From TrEMBL:
One Gene Ontology cellular component annotation held by this UniProt entry: endoplasmic reticulum
Residues in Fe2OG dioxygenase domain copies: 70-191
InterPro entries assigned: Oxoglu/Fe-dep_dioxygenase_dom, P4HA-like, Pro_4_hyd_alph, Pro_4_hyd_alph_FE2OG_OXY
Keywords assigned by UniProt, alphabetized: Dioxygenase, Iron, Metal-binding, Oxidoreductase
Entry protein name: Fe2OG dioxygenase domain-containing protein
Listed GO MF terms: iron ion binding; L-ascorbic acid binding; procollagen-proline 4-dioxygenase activity
Entries under PANTHER family matching the protein: PROLYL 4-HYDROXYLASE ALPHA SUBUNIT (PTHR10869), TRANSMEMBRANE PROLYL 4-HYDROXYLASE (PTHR10869:SF246)
Cofactor dependency: L-ascorbate
Length: 200
């Protein structure tokens, strides 16, 4: 979890731009709306100086193996209203064989909600209570580790093991928003050179 990665002026500029549409679920090149899996609205941000700088910074912060073949995908803003959610999934795509999403930044832009945490059911919650400002410590409604949406902060994780095999430990969900609104900025690192490893 990274604190204050985005200033609020940038958030305002991002939010005023978006052309939101009902979010789809993707399998390779196929995409469809499926409210059993995902209820939110998304907008791909146009390229401008702000988005260019954010993408540059995300790329500098973290290359995949320091890899020159990693690109930052176009930035996507996702808005959840009451009962909006995204059920458990992986960010890697098991249907493609050339290139994949090797890592994810999830930046919270608007946190005026209850619920709406980012939940990793297979990760263990740390016991040290100092984590409790950023992770859910009181609520046992969902298994595993849940990051609270905190505007301006980011969660970063890798979607692959170092040999390029899919990391199944980072299965995650956006928990249902109970009240208010949550908005997140998804930044995905796409490695063009990724190929399925010969051994899992
Ligand atoms: O909004 C979140 O907390 C997670 C979003 C997510 O996992 C995704 O869009 O792939
Ligand atoms: Fe995801």
């Amino acid at each position: 979890m990274y604190d204050r990665v985005l200033r609020s002026e940038l958030t305002q500029s991002i939010l005023s731009e978006g052309h939101f549409e009902t979010s789809k679920v993707y399998h390779g090149k196929n995409a469809h709306v499926d409210s059993d899996i995902r209820v939110s609205e998304s907008a791909i941000l146009e390229q401008d100086e702000v988005t260019r700088q954010i993408r540059r910074r995300a790329r500098q912060f973290r290359g995949w193996h320091g890899n020159k073949t990693v690109a930052i995908q176009p930035l996507k803003v996702q808005r959840y209203s009451v009962n909006g959610y995204y059920s458990v999934h992986y960010d890697w795509d098991g249907y493609v064989t050339e290139g994949n999403r090797v890592a994810t930044f999830m930046i919270y832009l608007v946190d005026s909600c209850t619920g709406g945490g980012t939940n990793f059911p297979r990760l263990r919650r740390p016991v040290d209570s100092r984590w409790c400002s950023i992770i859910e410590c009181e609520d046992d409604e969902y298994p595993g580790l849940t990051f609270k949406p905190i505007a301006g902060s980011a969660v970063f994780w890798e979607n692959m093991h170092s040999n390029g095999s899919f990391h199944r430990g980072v299965r995650h969900a956006s928990l249902p928003v109970k009240s208010g609104e949550k908005v997140g900025l998804n930044i995905w690192l796409w490695d063009h050179a990724w190929r399925p490893p010969l051994v899992e």
